[in-house]
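quick q for whoever's on today - can somebody do inverse folding on this one?? i tried earlier but teh output was garbage lol. tokens:
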């Protein structure tokens, strides 16, 4: 073989050896890494369910047949878990019956598609299922609720104070018991009473027939000043997003507790059999976003379909579809402190790009207007200043936009409203389209 051939052969051999050495090095490195991480299993929902101990109601005597009363088994299970380092129970997708209250505080519940049918007597028990506590959650569970008593009661209640990172997501809450008048259910959906909250997330649930579907409520009469005599510590970071409410409303009513950084986004509120005159209600909140909700009322009222009062700081109400099927206002927004007796706050609000439809939308003359005036967008009190109302479509109200205090109103489309604009003398109005 000539020298050139030998050199070429040597070059190929050396390249092969280097490649083999590199591969071996990588394999050795991978083996070393695998060895170093041996015993560390990545988190997964499925793996968690397989790992002992998986705590279920059946371990405490639940029949899970949808007929036997499993109340005692549930309460024994939650009591056991609270006394251990475990924080989660699994319901394994079964159907359970409970004829009394279940106390599930300080424990997380994964329903895995389970149904919990509860028939509770409100004259003996004030709630059906109580949960909550820092870093706890309830998910993938259907609550099927009936009230055997005559008193209103909470269905799923959370009364924890000073709790952080509480999550209620991908559940279904259905209430079957209503007052004879069909004005409201007498067993309500998710009711949150705690103060000092930091991070409450109510996400992607369905509430049906509950009247009060989601309610964050801190109220104590009408004569207490929140700054001088609050109910508890301020709450912050409340997120209510992606919920479907059928015959159920959403409310954040905290006039006696300071509440900040509230986001209400992408929820759908629809009446079916019950009367909803105040489907979305927010009171005493600072730093508020109400975005992308579809809200419908079906009852004559002066409250407003999307009602916000005693709001301060940066407030944005945008991209909502608001429909009043009866004689009601559309968006009603103000800073009047009402029940809180709070000092009047500084106000910087934007009401933008909402579609607001009233019950007169299909009428062509004022002769058919129902009794009483209705207003598409109402700013009802003199403290609501420096508010911008822009890019909204308002149709079918006796008045389109009414601002009592100085506001900037521009670029709105107002259709089939006998009085399109009624503004204070200090307001600025321009480039609005009236049809």
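ok took a stab at it. sequence:
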């Amino acid at each position: 073989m000539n020298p050139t051939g030998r050199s070429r052969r040597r070059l190929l051999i050396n390249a092969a050896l280097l490649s083999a050495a590199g591969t071996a090095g990588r394999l050795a490195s991978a083996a070393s890494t695998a060895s170093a991480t041996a015993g560390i299993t990545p988190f997964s929902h499925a793996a968690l369910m397989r790992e002992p101990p998986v705590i279920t109601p059946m371990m405490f005597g639940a029949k899970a047949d949808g007929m036997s009363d499993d109340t005692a088994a549930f309460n024994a299970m939650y009591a056991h878990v609270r006394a251990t380092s475990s924080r989660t129970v699994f319901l394994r997708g079964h159907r359970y019956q409970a004829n009394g209250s279940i106390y599930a505080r300080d424990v997380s519940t994964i329903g895995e598609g389970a149904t919990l049918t509860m028939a509770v007597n409100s004259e003996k028990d004030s709630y059906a299922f109580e949960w909550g506590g820092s870093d706890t959650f309830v998910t993938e569970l259907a609550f099927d609720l009936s009230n055997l008593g005559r008193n209103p009661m909470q269905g799923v209640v959370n009364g924890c104070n000073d709790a952080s990172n509480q999550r209620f997501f991908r559940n279904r809450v259905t209430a079957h018991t209503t007052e004879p008048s069909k004005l409201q259910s007498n067993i309500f959906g998710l009711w949150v009473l705690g103060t000092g909250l930091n991070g409450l997330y109510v996400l992607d649930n369905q509430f049906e027939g509950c009247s009060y579907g989601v309610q964050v409520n801190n109220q104590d009469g009408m004569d207490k000043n929140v700054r001088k005599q609050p109910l508890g510590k301020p709450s912050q970071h409340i997120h209510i997003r992606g919920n479907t409410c059928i015959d159920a409303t959403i409310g954040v009513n905290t006039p006696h507790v300071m509440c900040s950084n509230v986001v209400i986004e992408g929820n759908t509120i629809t009446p079916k059999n019950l009367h909803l005159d105040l489907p979305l209600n927010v009171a005493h909140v600072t730093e508020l976003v109400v975005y992308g909700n579809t809200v419908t009322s079906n009852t004559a009222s002066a409250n407003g379909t999307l009602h916000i009062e005693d709001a301060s700081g940066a407030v944005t109400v945008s991209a909502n579809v608001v429909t009043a099927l009866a004689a009601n206002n559309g968006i009603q927004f103000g800073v009047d402190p009402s029940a809180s007796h709070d000092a009047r706050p500084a106000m910087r609000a934007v009401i933008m790009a909402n579609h607001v439809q009233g019950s007169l939308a299909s009428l062509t003359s004022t002769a058919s207007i129902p009794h009483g005036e209705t207003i598409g967008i109402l700013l009802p009190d003199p403290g609501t200043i420096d508010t911008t109302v822009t890019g909204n479509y308002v149709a079918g109200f006796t008045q389109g936009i009414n601002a009592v205090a100085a506001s900037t109103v521009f670029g709105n489309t107002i259709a089939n409203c006998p009085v399109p604009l009624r503004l204070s003398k200090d307001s600025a109005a321009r480039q609005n389209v009236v049809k």
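fwiw The chain has three helices and 33 strands. also The CA atoms of residues 277 and 299 lie 5 Å apart. so keep that in mind when u check it
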